[in-house]
Amino acid sequence: VLPKVPVPDLQQTLSAYLKCVKHLVPDAQFQKTKAMVEKFGKPGGTGEMLQKKLMERREKTENW
What we know:
- There is one protein chain.
- With 64 residues, the protein is mostly helical.
- It has one domain (10-60).
- The protein is built from 3 helices and no strands.
- The termini are close together.
């Protein structure tokens, strides 16, 4: 059995996403994207809920 793959920290993932997308879109679009990412990553928000489900899935599933 392979070891479980680690799940990256949500804030780390969101920061990496913003860093990558910044160079791909105009500044106005980046500002909109950044606002959406910040909303998604707020404590108690959608991102946190999905991260929790992903962590649960990691623990319950072999070789996911």
